[in-house]
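Hey team,

Filing this mostly as a record. A colleague (T.K.) asked me to run one chain through the structure pipeline before their review meeting, and I want the input and output archived in the tracker in case anyone asks later how it was produced. No errors, nothing strange. Just documentation.

Input sequence:
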Amino acid sequence: MNALEWPLSGRVVTSTPDGVEIALQEWGDRAGRPVVFIHGFSQCHLSWSRQYAGGLARGFRLITYDLRGHGQSGKPMSPHYYRESTRWADELACVIERAGPQEPVLVAWSYGGRVVSDYLAKFGGAGLAGIVLVGSKINSSAEFSCVGIPALQMATADDDLTASISATISFLKACAETWDADEFNRQLAFNMLIPAKVRGFLLGRQFNADAIFKNLDLPVLFVHGKQDRITPYAASLHGHATAAHSRLSLYDGVGHCPFFEAPERFNDELAEFIRRDCAG
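Output structure:
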């Protein structure tokens, strides 16, 4: 049988140490380097459709999953499941364990970078091959959030459904420079899978991983759209200047979703980074 299968498995459910069921999916080449994709705030694994349905599946084993509270994963309704860093670290550790013995590359978008920082704070970088941060940041300084975005995200957590939907539409529109109508509708649908209360639990988590990245003995690639209206690309400039071993790729004319807005370039750069920098 050809090693390339699509997908490798249907939805798989794994359980975290605190009992939250996490839905994950596997795509591509069973023998390839595992690549774990971590989506952003209010999203789900479908955000990465232009990666797992593209050429990356021919050379790598791609693992996507839904963060707790999102998509098809468990959605506990108590704030402590979302406010404590160690729970996010343990969740990602469960997904990495699923990847098997070969060291994975982590690809984290936006809030997903916060989850990577949680993981590194608890487990360090041993057992990883590299990290890619997309439209993300390594600390929560206010200078690394675009004006109005924290308030808009909080509005998505409104108990009033009409207000929550309206804010979610505005937030999603800000994520990309241009949207195809059908794709926008699809993404809006999976954005609304996260309960409003859970969105509120996610927000306001402060962190500073500068020291972690400064001392991290792993290759890191920072990817950012220069027209990002969620997280200014200054966040990636800061990350690149801080991390011990890093590269920087900026995308002109692209917003918060380089992997979606410019998928061919993103996929090519990701593959090159993995083969060139993460081969050790």
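Quick notes for T.K.: The two ends are 28 Å apart (CA to CA). The domain at 4-145+205-277 is CATH 3.40.50.1820 (Rossmann fold).
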